[in-house]
Design a protein that fits this description.
The protein is an alpha/beta fold. It has 2 domains: 4-276, 3-Layer(aba) Sandwich (Rossmann fold); 285-468, no CATH class. It is built from 14 helices and 20 strands. The strands form 4 sheets. A 9-stranded mixed sheet has the order 10-20-11-19-12-18-17-14-13. α3 packs parallel to α7, α4 (79-96) runs parallel beside α5 (118-130) and α10 (288-296) packs parallel to α11 (325-332). The longest helix has 18 residues, at 79-96. The protein is globular and about 70 Å long. The chain starts with a strand and ends in a 31-residue tail after the last strand. 56% of the residues are buried.
């Protein structure tokens, strides 16, 4: 008899220091779909839901499609929105249950107005409905802040192993496989988590360089997974811009209850490695003057552009996407044949829409959410294009997934093509430019608001990559943030002595 398995996705990476609360409209700007809309949107995509769908076909499951919801990182999820998201799973269990298994795609760093540990609260609510016998496997972002409650209520925790995250599909297939083995009576699962007294570490999760602490940790975890009864080990770099108790790096292990003692030894070893390597980094942020100096050099004979990441205003980490310090520096330096994506500014787009393509307009660009990170730029430019901002990802990240930047304008200001968007969204895909009439490969300088995900698509076409610190909300200067709930003492905010 076919097994009935519920699949769902509820994602948000919450920057608790952001002044932008996350309401239902934030999900609708990215995606919020229910029921049979899930296969329609995600089949054939390299996403978690795409992986669950293909696994269900392979195992012959009957799917209970609940909800798929994802919003750009920002401030706390409102109580009303959080209630709606939970209902997307809990109400379906009431109406369409019982089920034999559950596969959930979560982030692991979600905070609502009512629950600091949103994912833990969701899993606890599900357990109250289904009991302990129904297996639950969850996928998590590599930057999850994994709580004890998540490990208590999930049978398996499977985190991404790449940053940029290009293995979402594979991790979902892995999670689904464990659920299937439990339902077939071939495995029993237990799950545990541990963390060091550290806010930072794991090289911020970077794997793309092929070297560094995160690469070494994952390689060691893979060796441990070869042992009998050790089914999955997830290493999480954590999400530091979240003022909650468990913020920071952690390790979760999924194992057979028969090897519980060995699993705890493995946890302790990997957590010790995180602690010992906490200061090692392979990514270095440069000040704006260095980034601008490199941009002034122009082409170096390779025919490839310089790529600059405006990393501390990364919408993918809760940045506002409208800070202006880097853009202003490039304009002041007279940089030309450049493209910049995005500046999120619906008000300036309205002016461009009224004037039309080809018009010259004057706007106060960007800097509207919090001018402390860069005041609006008074500028005059030519409207080069106006689009609906919709595109389909080419990959490697989110390949095949349709997204929207909302009504979008390209404004040419003194030789810099600025992609001005309605929706906040980090730039990870060439289509963010191409769909707006810009071929980034033809530019001398490409600027993206992203901290690391951009590398999957843009590093291969670059002559050099620079990660710039524009002094915005996603700064790595942890002492600049007023942590009130974070467990203490914790490195690097405090002196920590391990016994």
């Amino acid at each position: 008899m076919s097994k009935r398995v519920l699949i769902a996705q509820i994602m948000h990476e919450t920057n608790t220091f952001s002044r932008l609360l996350t309401a239902e409209d934030a999900y609708r700007r990215r995606y919020l779909v229910h029921g049979d809309e899930l296969p329609e949107k995600f089949r054939g995509t390299r996403t978690e839901i795409g992986g669950f769908l293909d696994a269900a076909d392979r195992f012959g499951w009957t799917l209970v499609n609940a909800i798929a919801a994802n919003a750009t990182p920002s401030g706390k999820v409102t109580a009303e929105c959080w209630q709606m998201l939970k209902a997307g799973v809990l109400d379906v269990l009431d109406k369409e249950g019982p089920v034999d298994g559950i596969c959930l795609a979560l982030h692991g760093a979600m905070v609502s107005e009512t629950d600091d540990d949103a994912e833990g609260a969701l899993l606890a609510a599900i357990r109250r409905k289904i009991g302990r016998k129904v297996p639950i496997a969850i996928t998590l972002d590599l930057h999850a802040n994994v709580s004890d409650e998540m490990a208590e209520h999930a049978d398996a925790i499977i985190a991404y192993r790449t940053y940029p995250h290009i293995d979402l599909y594979e991790r979902a297939v892995q999670a689904a496989g464990l659920v299937n083995e439990v339902m077939e009576g071939r495995k029993e699962l237990a799950c545990s988590v541990a963390r060091p007294p550290s806010l930072d570490g794991c090289d911020h999760g970077r794997t793309s360089a092929g070297v560094g602490p995160m690469v070494d940790l994952l390689a060691k975890a893979a060796e441990y997974e070869k042992e009998t009864g050790i089914y999955a080990i997830s290493v999480h770099a954590g999400f530091q811009w979240s003022d909650i108790v468990p913020a920071g790096p952690s390790v979760a292990i999924t194992y057979s209850p028969s090897v519980g003692s060995r699993a705890q030894t493995i946890l302790e070893d990997l957590v010790s490695d995180i602690w010992e390597t906490r200061e090692e980094q392979t990514v270095h942020y440069v000040p704006l003057d260095e980034a601008v100096a490199e941009a002034r050099k122009g082409q170096d004979g390779t025919g490839k552009p310089l790529v600059i990441a405006d990393a501390t205003d990364n919408p993918g980490g809760g940045g506002y996407g409208d800070t202006t310090n880097l853009l202003r520096a490039l304009l002041d330096a007279g940089i030309t044949n450049a493209c910049f994506c995005p500046i999120t500014d619906p008000a300036s787009i309205e002016i461009g829409q009224k004037a039309g393509v080809g018009a010259t307009i004057s706007v106060e660009l960007g800097g509207k959410v919090d001018p402390v990170f860069g005041a609006p730029i008074s500028c005059t430019g030519v409207v080069k294009s106006l689009t609906d901002g919709k595109f389909v990802h080419d990959g490697p990240m989110w390949k095949g997934l349709a997204m929207s930047m909302g009504p979008t304008m390209v404004l040419d200001v003194n030789g810099i093509d600025i992609v001005v968007t309605t929706n906040r969204q980090q730039t990870t895909d060439h289509q963010a430019f191409l769909t707006n009439g810009i071929d980034p490969k033809t530019k001398d300088v490409i600027v993206v608001k992203s901290s690391h995900h951009f590398r999957a698509a843009f590093e291969p076409i670059s002559r050099k990559v620079i990660v710039a610190d524009s002094g915005s909300l996603c700064s790595h200067n942890w002492s600049a943030f007023d942590f009130k709930k974070l467990r203490r003492p914790i490195w690097p905010l405090d002196e920590v002595t391990l016994s």
